[in-house]
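Minutes, project huddle
Topic: does the predicted pose make sense with adenosine-5'-diphosphate bound?
PN asked that the exact inputs be recorded in the minutes so nobody has to dig through chat later. Recorded below.
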Amino acid sequence: MPQQAGPLGALALEDAFVALTDGVLVTGPDDRIASANPAAFRLLGEDQLVGRELDELLLVSGAATVQKTDGHLVRRAWFPREERMGVLEIVSTEITGRVGWIHTVRDVTSQAELLRLKEDFLLQVAHELRSPITALIASLDLVVQDALSMPRDELERMVGTLQRSALRLENLVENLLDAGSIEAGTFQVRTTPTTVRHALEEALLFVGPHLEARGQRMVSDIPPNADRVLADPRRTGQVLANLIMNASKYGPEGGTVTVMARPKGGAVEVSVRDEGPGIPVDEQPRLFQRFYRSREAREAAGGLGLGLTISRAIVQAQGGDIGIESAAGQGTSVHFTLPKARELTQEAHRT
Ligand SMILES: Nc1ncnc2c1ncn2[C@@H]1O[C@H](COP(=O)(O)OP(=O)(O)O)[C@@H](O)[C@H]1O
Ligand SMILES: [Mg+2]
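Predicted holo structure (tokens), as shared on screen:
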């Protein structure tokens, strides 16, 4: 009885082989390639495959076995791809009856890169956790030994170190949690009438000691007509803390950090400016990406590359925008907007 041709009736399995983006190869009992689809040629970067030994091909590219079970083999190999090296995963399955093997070849470069980014990130987290913990333990050791005999000012200094280390740890953990909730889409802010000055005070509790430690000065210019805003006070403090912290970390020792607020339409624009090395224009769009840190930044100071990501999420959730104005060697100015709060007089009129 003739088979009824469905909508795919004309399409044979062979056509599917040709159309696949994964490479498919068949090797015979002599381990030589009997057939290969176009993707296999493209992925392996070879013009000639039939008749060659696959194992030999893979050996040349330094393939490593990832998994090996009876009749099943997974290998990974490096191969040249446009400009960089890529990673291929080759899964080989023995055909029943031991007449040969079928192999699929897949480009897993992006998964491998993501994995590396994650590993780098974990290392960086561990590194960032270590210094405040080391400081905590060292200060606690001293306090435990000589708390009673210690001069009062020394004890105060010690407790100050303890507090700063604990705050740093808290900040680190909060940043990680925030990044998680931004990614999950559950990030929220609670806006209320407040002032830029208040947010700046909050920020300084955290960043003040850092500015002091690097001998930097903060200058603020917040006129009354650019102060009252509709924002989440704690979160806005967090944005300012992130931006001032960057200005301090990447700016020169003994330099000045300027915080300025100006009315701009129905909003207030706040800017944080430093005298640092600036950021090349081509790098600027990437700065708001999770975990992104420029090479210079990685050499200059610690960090997880989350500050700007979180700041942007906060600013946007409050109905504002954030942007960077910078050029190499020109310093950096990061500015963001906050909706203006209704004037007190207007509020009085409404009641
Ligand atoms: N004021 C600045 N001056 C120079 N580079 C900056 C400045 N602010 C941010 N950057 C760059 O943007 C990157 C991301 O900043 P951020 O998200 O705060 O992460 P982190 O400070 O942890 O590296 C930094 O690593 C740095 O490369
Ligand atoms: Mg930062």
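Observations noted during the meeting:
- The first strand starts at residue 23 and ends at 27.
- The chain has three domains: 13-107, 112-184, 192-349.
No decisions taken; revisit at the next huddle.
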